[in-house]
Design brief:
By secondary structure, the chain is α+β, with helices and mostly antiparallel strands. The chain folds into 2 domains: 109 residues, DNA Polymerase III, Chain A, domain 2, CATH 3.10.150.10; 106 residues, Roll (DNA Polymerase III, Chain A, domain 2), CATH 3.10.150.10. Helices cover 16% and strands 46% of the residues. The chain has a 9-stranded antiparallel sheet with strand order 6-2-3-4-18-17-16-10-14. A hairpin with a 3-residue loop joins strand 7 and strand 8. Helix 1 runs antiparallel to helix 2 and helix 3 runs antiparallel to helix 4. The N and C termini lie far apart (57 Å).
Amino acid sequence: MLAKLENPRIFSEVISIISELVTEVKLRFDERGMGIVAIDPANVAMVSFRIPREAFSEYEAGNEILGINLDNLKAVLRRARPGSILIMESYESTLKLDILDKIKRSFSLALIEIESEDKNVPSLEFLSQVQMSPNDLVDAIEDCVIVADSCNFVAEPDKFIIEASGLNSARAEFSSDEVKIISGKSKAKYSLEYLQKFSKASKIADKVFINFSSNHPTKIEFKRDDLDLAFILAPRVENED
């Protein structure tokens, strides 16, 4: 496998975000490009990430799966500067990473055995989809974190609400003039700890899609031309008296 990436900064940012959910992943290189699918240890969240083949300036791969420690990969990628070029090559038991800028710097990371089964992103159907500004999502999540540890997503045909309440409350309401809404009525509660981690992807995304149904998982997709990053989060179900 050989993959050359002209702007590794975005890749570095994504790996840093994913490393907050899982410590080890399988990097899959195939004819479509490079991808990661992983589930966090609590089985609450799944992450899916793909860089399409077209985003690489050079790409040669059959169907390879490389087990890698994310903290080690993250540390190497942080050594890349603006304008650096990243070249990844696989060998029998190592992943070689060359960072090219003024000089050529080379790193070798030992590949690891990951016993978990290969995961596929489940096919889910959603009643509601909201397209909004990534920065607006961050602001709404951070507002809710002030008052609670979970929040509700509420969608109606003409508005979308992110709200949280405990002793205090917070609420952000978006009209159909501000966000794009495809929805019936849906309401579900999700962990703010996870949503905070996901929302860090807003700084690299051009747009974000929030998909959910009442009391069902949400799929939050951060998109730009050169990558797809998505998270699936189980709902928080609480018994009410």
